[in-house]
Amino acid sequence: MAYHAGTGRQPVCGGLFPGSDLGHKYFCAEPTGAAPAGLSAAPTSSGPAAPAGTPRHPMEPDRPIGYGAFGVVWSVTDPRDGRKVALKKMPNVFQNLVSCKRVFRELRMLCFFKHDNVLSALDILQPPQIDCFEEIYVITELMQSDLHKVIVSPQPLTTDHIKVFLYQILRGLKYLHSAGILHRDIKPGNLLVNSNCLLKICDFGLARVEEPDPSRHMTQEVVTQYYRAPEVLMGSRHYGAAIDVWSVGCIFAEMLGRRILFQAQSPIQQLDLITDLLGTPPLSAMVSACEGARAHILRGPHKPPSLSVLYMLSEGATHEAVHLLCRMLVFDPNKRISGSDALLHPYLDEGRLRYHTCMCQCCYSVPSGRVYTRDFEPEAERPFSHSYEQSLLSVWQGKELIHRFITEHQQGKRVPLCINPQSAAFKTFIRSTAWHSSKVSRKEER
Ligand SMILES: [Zn+2]
Question: What ranges does the record give for the region Disordered, renumbered to this chain (predicted)?
Fold first, then answer.
């Protein structure tokens, strides 16, 4: 329902990232000077290059800004408009069929997303001839920092900030889940923020489509340990969107207390810390657990819940905040609140109002006030389809499919981009690979 409201509220983020502290560890955008004029020369064998005769624009790799699970992100200047953007290199794509499928899935997701709180692809660099095609380069919006850096920084994090961040995390998550996508690695470092407090969920290297068939096994090598849901810690072979909601609950508590809620040394200790807070779970909450995990819980002493300690996280841990937190940190995934239901909690009313009063792209101002969108938290227009994956049987076939996908994606768009091999950072950029290569990439992932 559209309605009007006054525009008297101040922007929420004034002073959150003051002056030069902006993204201090994140190598925020800085001018690198004009990109070389003219079109680049013949294709190189090591970098992305266009087929001979294709007009293209060389880009200057500037500096690395982050390392995800399966890729390296650099800050670059788009020579077409001088805009600073992020360039993600997806290396080792064609090492084996598993990595080929995973990268293609991530690439298709980045091109599928159309939501302000989810990072999406602005462009893909032109691939070389298929024989030289080894890496994929995706351009996304450049964000100045991430929630991890904000939480560990000395910058103030007020209740207003927490509400507007949490609102955006859940708004993005509702969209992802409505598309049938599980992120599977929600953590503060994967929540990019800029100086206006806009937040975008990123890094879909572990994301996958929800598995409707409970008899199909899914990998447990997901989610950074501190944010891992109890059902995954307990070895459940099938899980759903509730694992992402658990992660968001942990992040909510971390924003309130400015420290990691469950910071354990091992997965077993992680589970112990969770039961210290929530109490020993009933058997009904452990039906999908593996035998060993269930035995571990039952062997230990019976623990009563101690949820009242959540009130001691900070002054911001009001009754309303703790109420919502306790709905997200529920041991039994079937009883945990969903992302879309969490958005209906009164704690998020102010975050919603602030977001749509001065931060969003979906509402606009007229002299008489603000015209609000009809749908504050939109769902995806259609589910993300992964039916192509069944027919992907070889690395070469995957290579052809991805090459065609990128070429078709670019058709009718702006002048294609490539990396300028003359730039000072080119050699480092070409050599840079993923920070760590997850075990998932070498195993059959589900
Ligand atoms: Zn809006």
Answer: 38-61
* 376 Cα–ligand 1 center, Å: 6
Of 185, 244, 332, 341, which one is the catalytic site residue? 185
The alpha carbon of 11 and the centre of ligand 1 are apart by a number of angstroms equal to 14
Known binding residues for ATP:
88
Taking the centre of ligand 1 as the mean of its atom positions, its distance from the CA of residue 147, in whole angstroms, is 22
Q: Is 146 considered catalytic here?
A: no
Domain 146-371 classified CATH 1.10.10.60? Answer: no
**Is the separation of the CB atoms in 268 and 275 below 8 Å?**
no
pLDDT band of 9, cuts 50, 70, 90: very low
| Residues 125-182: tens digit of each pLDDT | 888 888 888 889 999 999 989 999 999 999 989 999 999 999 999 999 999 999 999 9
CATH top class, domain 25-142+392-445:
alpha beta
pTM above 0.90, yes or no: no
Do the Cβ atoms of 249 and 257 come closer than 8 Å? no
Q: How far apart are CA 361 and CA 327, in angstroms?
A: 30
Q: What mean pLDDT comes out for the span 88-110?
A: 90
Q: Is the pLDDT of residue 37 over 50?
A: no
| Domain segments of the chain as ranges | 25-142+392-445, 146-371
